[in-house]
Design a protein that fits this description.
single chain; 7 helices
Length: 138
Amino acid sequence: MKYVFEMLDEVKSTKKIEDKIQVLQSYNSIWALKDVLRGTYDTSLEWDLPKGAPPFEANQGFNAPANLLQEHKQFKYLVIGEASKNLPKLRREMLYIKLLESIHPKDAEVVINMTSQKNITGVSKTVVQKAFPNLIPT
């Protein structure tokens, strides 16, 4: 199975919008990718984290103890909402840092950009909405 950053790189490497949509749709069952796309482009989500990259120690990639394909489930504790309402700020930020330190460094970069809601180069909101019509509100 590919890392999330590899899936995004595959989409970025295609030139035509139709091809980008097709590549995204080929990963329809990968919820980690869909969560990253939604977290990046859904402006109704509010990340309850400081902006930018926190101080964390990236692992070497080849020895990442976890994978974003499983760890994306922790996103619910990082946004303002029901799951995170009783979570102290320090605990939330430590959870975020632990997540970043446990996944591949390039996936950690994807997560940092997502929580800053920084657009993904080569993967526009329009393309995401066409690939997954019900993922992001228009």
